[in-house]
């Protein structure tokens, strides 16, 4: 359960990459087509959207980075200090701060440029401003090249840090280089740390895990520490110091009295004294390592005395251990774990939280009520079964029927058990035997051993294929001849029955040839209908409702409900359709229109009838005729629905004159950009250019001007 | 789970493949062909970008080579050192061939000879009124058309307050007002962002000058106190002329060249 997991941070792109990402995203996620003929508002919003989108993408990206990277003030002081030594706190903060500034700069640029686009009066100006805006934003990003590269390196390193939980049960090894810290780590965990015979093989903290008392223990291997002042320590040593300073753990200080590590016992003791303040409040054990090289008893007494002094000073125990001979390894682990566990339990019991748990705990010690001895109840049937040996414990296994199974080891008598058992008492499998006798291809188990025969001696007998001139496979069944005779009898009987049936059967049908032809025709027609409907059904296209499907579409595809189609269909079925069609005609909606036209014709006729009677001038007659024809047209189009011009009063105007005025106004409004593509079009078409339209237009002079 | 430098660790444990070095070498030597193949294949905007990048790379390469060459041709000229006793004031002089230096001084002199008050953009395209102003319709029926809105960037002083709408003939939108200009010093070849003090001359029209319109070629006065320039009489100059070199309404910023 790692609390601190820095592996989730997403990669930080380099500055050119980031620019590419941002611009490509803008290109892909915003509309790309615009024409100068569009309304200027539309053009402006098109470009404003581009600028805004780019700014949003950039700030989104930068904010992601800022939130991804841990803030050193918020994380555990162990990690904060580790980051300080590994990546330099100031540099780290500066880089993040610069990203933050870049983000606000980009926001500001976008704000300013959008404000300018609002005043732009042409597509060209909008475009130039957009270009400038995007360019400036990208320049801001380009300036972050160094910080982005640095942060990417930090991210890579952070994500590869071992996931170390600062609050869990921890064992920590420390000491001079080459005293056997990493070897011990490899002994008790599966950390697989590199062990080499030179100093500073371990260059950073390594984490392994081991189990003790069903608990999970975190084991931390630190790089070796040299004995000098804190200022002189390098990054590698500082990591060990930080781990010692910030983790509450059980510390194992490794000593090497054999001095194979290259440092004298005095040096080892002085290092211990110099880092002693870091051991405060920790469970310390001094480990005397490499006792296989120099047993503790044979160490020079003065050196022994020095090490024991350390133990007395720090008030801690001394344990001997060897990674090579594995002497004392598990004892050291157990001691360290026990000490820490005890401390942690004490701390927990002393803490406030324990009250909440203790209040809820109550331990009962039940006292016996009377002298009656109450035993477990075992049903009689079970007792009986145990007695019979059908169920029971492992020492008397129940016998199951093995009928039909091949012989197994269980069935073999105790006598020949020696043969199949190994020296160690393990059962030999056929596979083991195969390897013993020369491997696959040389030896194979004899499956005949498992044959289940009446007499076991028959198992290995050879079986001939032909015996007394007959194939013995034919005589596997002893009653084969009897069965064959039965089969033949049955077949003969069946044949006889069939013949008897044929004799008494009637002829096929009692229809004459005409009727049969009719039946065939019906069947054919049915088949055709079925096929058509299946074909229609299997077509993958939208299904129209029946009411629409039935209407006439054109003369080639007349709908089902068309008069002629209905008539045809009904006549084919032998039904007189005339009444049906008559009734349908009376309900037909479209017939209303025809009546309307005919009515108007009547009116026209009336007019034409009475006009010659009165005396009017020629122009007046013309006018009358025109108005009449117009009225006729109007009448004709009334029933046409949408195309019919509406009453002035319906449009909201009081008279025809007002309609005319409105039309004129509309035209005038449009005149501003008529000829152009729209109101944003400043282009002057050729016919509007003055020099091409003024002056003489003689042959040969016009186009040369 | 790998800890720390897992790549190095893997290499340490398992080594690299036998032909790793050879593969690296081959990859490097094939790179030229790969590049040329790509350069021949690519077209469109990608080609432009690629060519520009390559051009830059090659230019830097050429420059570094040239730099090394220059260093080699400016070697100490041992023969130029006079034999025998030398007066004290000549003791620490080394014989260096001064060919380069000389040519530089000649160039410098030629430059100084050129006109002192030459303006960087001598010719300016005039800006017409109808391009500069947008007519605003006013009045209850929107039929009065005496108001104008300036459509270009302007400089408006700090103390400016807008007039009563009834009397305000020219509107300079606050979105198009500029306060600072990116001024390049032509000799130092460096650019500073300086505050604009005023518009001295808009070559298109006197009205534009009065309105403080910034177009290409406009002469503006900028605050150079940050640069620490000194006049011939020894005073610190704080206002200097500069000419606008771009179309601020298209770029959203004012670029100018200092007139020295």
Automatic annotation (TrEMBL), chain A:
Species this protein is from: Cylindrotheca closterium
Q: Which GO terms describe its cellular component?
A: nucleolus
Q: Where is the composition biased (Basic and acidic residues)?
A: 554-569, 627-637
Domain of life, per lineage: Eukaryota
UniProt KW Lipoprotein keyword: no
Q: Where in the cell is it found?
A: Nucleus, Nucleolus
Q: Which residues form a coiled coil?
A: 477-504
Report the residue ranges that make up the OBG-type G domain in this protein. 169-341
Q: Which GO terms describe its biological process?
A: ribosome biogenesis
Q: Where are the residues of the annotated region Disordered?
A: 533-569, 586-655
Biased-composition ranges for Polar residues? 606-619
Protein name per UniProt:
OBG-type G domain-containing protein
Q: Which GO terms describe its molecular function?
A: GTP binding
Please indicate if the UniProt record lists Coiled coil as a keyword: yes
Pfam families associated with the record: NOG1, NOG1_N, NOGCT
Q: Which UniProt keywords apply?
A: Coiled coil, GTP-binding, Nucleotide-binding, Nucleus, Ribosome biogenesis
- Main localization is nucleus
Automatic annotation (TrEMBL), chain B:
Pfam families found in the cross-reference section: Ribosomal_S8e
**Which subcellular locations apply to this protein?**
Nucleus, Nucleolus
**Is Transit peptide found in the keyword set?**
no
Which residues lie within the region annotated Disordered? 1-31
Per the UniProt entry, what is one GO biological process?
ribosomal large subunit biogenesis
Basic and acidic residues bias located where? 16-31
Output the superkingdom of the source species. Eukaryota
GO CC annotations?
Answer: nucleolus; preribosome
Q: What UniProt keywords apply to this chain's record, in alphabetical order?
A: Nucleus, Ribonucleoprotein, Ribosome biogenesis, rRNA processing
Summary of subunit composition and partner proteins: Component of the pre-66S ribosomal particle.
- What is the stated purpose of this protein? Involved in the biogenesis of the 60S ribosomal subunit. May play a part in the quality control of pre-60S particles.
Q: State the family named in the UniProt similarity comment for this chain.
A: Belongs to the eukaryotic ribosomal protein eS8 family. Ribosome biogenesis protein NSA2 subfamily.
Can you say what this protein is called?
Ribosome biogenesis protein NSA2 homolog
Q: Which organism is it from?
A: Cylindrotheca closterium
